[in-house]
Design brief:
Blueprint: E1 4-15, E2 18-29, E3 33-37, H1 44-52, E4 59-64, E5 70-73, H2 87-92, H3 96-99, H4 107-119, H5 135-149, E6 153-157, H6 165-180, E7 184-188, H7 192-198, E8 201-205, E9 209-214, H8 215-218, H9 221-232, E10 240-242, E11 252-254, H10 261-276
Parallel strand pairs: 3-7, 3-8, 5-6, 6-7
Antiparallel strand pairs: 1-2, 1-4, 8-9, 10-11
Helix pairs in contact: 4-5
Length: 277
């Protein structure tokens, strides 16, 4: 059996006591290439932040195998492009886990950065200010930063949003190259046609796991319909979890906190009424 790279044990993640990813269990195989899909607000980015440790579990756990090096690329919207930095500065940040923030870069480090920029089609862009780059150029630079990190586990949150088709194609090829090097890769993707064509495995989320496995099976119409219906029936901010995996039917499971009981009961009733409508 292939060794897992990371394992989810009844993992629940969320914000301000409101769960966003509910009771997720399963493992990601070492060397696998997995798309994470679902509607906006389905928990995809939350899961990425939980894996990298930005969010701590509300319950359960996310266990990354020992000695696994992680590279995490958040959405472009979370980046401050106004920071006065050059492309070479941005890419070199990928070296700080090895060198430290005050470490001196070696000639080998500079060669690695130059090769990474060449690999993403940005040779000659070293001294360009980051705030002058197009969306596609910035994403290429960010992929170059991931390249120099030389990570075992690569997490990419919506890397194909708002970039041109040529850049998407080039970045897909780079992801496939990483996959061929037996790195473990998880990518948040919205374009299901892109997933079907390039991603062997898919995790379909609707704040809980709807399906997870081979992309052809996961993206079956009945699974997509189930995900949409569950997402639409969810009352935004309602502090409860749906853990029906063990019961075979919808069963509201409330995360109780002091003073929340009356609100939880009312929220659950609203969900049940909307789901029955």
């Amino acid at each position: 059996m292939t060794e897992p790279c990371l394992t989810f044990n009844d993992l629940t993640l969320g914000y301000h006591r409101h769960p966003a990813v509910h009771h997720l269990s399963g493992s990601v195989r070492r060397g696998s290439l997995t798309a994470v899909v679902g509607s906006n607000g389905s928990g995809k980015s939350t899961l990425m932040k939980g894996i990298v440790g930005v969010l701590k579990p509300m319950s359960g756990s996310c266990v990354v195998n020992k000695d696994v090096r992680i590279a995490y690329l958040p959405q472009q919207s979370e980046l401050d492009r106004s920071f006065p930095a050059r492309v070479i500065d941005l890419v070199s940040l990928g070296l700080w886990p090895k060198r430290g923030l005050l470490g001196r870069f070696t000639s080998d480090d500079r060669d690695r950065v130059a090769k990474a920029l060449m690999s993403v089609g940005l040779a000659g862009f070293e001294k360009r200010p980051v705030d002058t780059l197009s969306g596609g150029q910035l994403q290429r630079a960010l992929f170059a930063r991931v390249l120099v990190q030389d990570a075992d586990l690569i997490l990419l949150d919506e890397p194909f949003n708002a970039i041109d088709a040529k850049t998407v194609s080039d970045l897909i090829e780079l992801i496939k190259r990483w996959h061929g090097e037996n790195r473990t890769i998880m990518v948040v993707v919205h374009d299901l046609d892109l997933v079907r064509e390039h991603f062997p495995e898919t995790l379909l989320l609707a704040r809980k796991k709807i399906a997870w496995g081979a992309s052809r099976e996961t993206l079956r119409p009945e699974n997509l319909l189930h995900a949409r219906q569950f997402h639409e029936a969810w009352e935004e901010g309602a502090p409860w979890c749906d853990d029906d995996a063990a019961h075979g039917h919808a069963h509201p499971h409330v995360h109780h906190h002091a003073g929340d009981h009356a609100h939880d009961h009312a929220g659950t009733e609203r969900i049940l009424k909307r789901g029955a409508a």
